[in-house]
Each structure stands twice: as structure tokens, then as C-alpha cells.
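go over my protein:
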Amino acid sequence: MIKEEEKKIYKAKIVKREQVSESSFFVEIECDKPVEVKAGQFISIYCEGLTLRRPFSVFSNNNGRIGILIKERGKGTKFIKSLKENEAVDIIGPLGNHFNIENKKSLLVGAGIGVAPISYLKTKLDEKNIENLFLAGFLNKEEIPQNIKSDFICTDDGSFGEKGSVLNYIGVIINEYRPEVIYACGPYIVLKLIAELGERYGIETQVAMEKVMACGIGVCRGCVIDIKKDGKVINATVCKDGPVFKGSEVVWQ
């Protein structure tokens, strides 16, 4: 359990901001002290003029420099993109739970902006010399972040790598690679398929859920999903109980 005081970072500044694809940019935030962040956790950023903070999965963490990958979508991301180097930024983190790293042959799947926490997870697995294969999927070549290091890339339109969605390749890769555990983040439909394949092949799956969040700490109950626990279906908040869940415990619609 992360103590409440360890979630608060009061002094931070932007040290790097760069466009890494047609629609996404990378921001590195330097904290006044080293912060331990586990793969799958996120930070929440205050955006001027907006009541609610905006949550972002951690993409990297180097000696107190937390990196996030952002796709510009609305007022919050537009505000963050406008920040210049050395500008102060108000963040809280790390928040949420994390991937449970095991010494097992691992298949990593990231789709779209979901590659962010998966990239950080790959770094952690590589540090522990755990065998892994990283599959990343995007709409087209222009959407691929320049700072992504994956083993297999596919694009829906075939403009880079293999043609098609990750949905077209996950089954084939499972049969060829024979992973013992699958970690994934991406759109709901991708995570649902991975959970179903995990059940079919008897492979453990851990999925980082993408959900619109309000408070980010489990108070407002705005990001509730249903999960199975002790034979019952109960509510769980993605921001606090997650964002990482076992694929087998999520009640998929």
C-alpha cells in the first residue's frame, strides 16, 4: 500500500516537451526528489482553468524525471502541451495499483496511447532479464511515437509494419510465442479479446483499463467497472482499485 504522503509531489517542473507523432507528444517532468513509480501506475496533473485533474500513465521514470505520453484530445492536454521547459507543474502521484511482475515468459500488448504503461513495463522486465515480446498497434504510420521500442508493430492501414489491428495478430502470436503471462493496455475491445484468449489458452492476463476519470482517488465513483470477487460481482474503481486488473476478474460486457 502506498502511503498518502508518498502520493504528493509539490515541486515539479517541465524539463522536456517534444512532439513524437502526428497526434502525440512526450513530456518529462522533474520532481524535487526521486519518486518510485511502478509499471501501470499513473500521475494526475492540474490544468489551469479546469476543475478536474487529468490522469496520465507513466511512460518512463529516470532519477525523478517522470515521462508521460499524451495524445491531444481536449482542454487539459492542450494546456499541458502549451507548457514550456522549466515551467512549474502541479502533479499528484503515483496513483493506482500496478502490474504484478513475474519471472515468466511475457507477451506485452499496447494499442494506441495504451503503449505508454506497456513501454514502462518492458523497461522493468528488461532490467530483470525477463523474456518478453512487445506487440504495438496503431491506426497508421503517423500515429507511431518515435520513442516507442517494440518488437512487432502493426497499423490498421498497413502504412507501417504489418497491416491490420492487434486483434488480427494476438492469437497467432500466442500460438507461436507461447507466453506464460500477457500484459496489455488499450481500447476495451482489445483487452476483452486478450482476456478471452487468456481463458481459452489457460494464460494469466493482466490488463490496464482505460477509463475517463474525475477525482483519480476513488471518491467520486465515476470510473466504476464490475469485477468478480469471491463468487460475487462487485463494483471497483479503475483509478484506485485499478487501473490494472486480472483479465479473468473483469465482467466484460
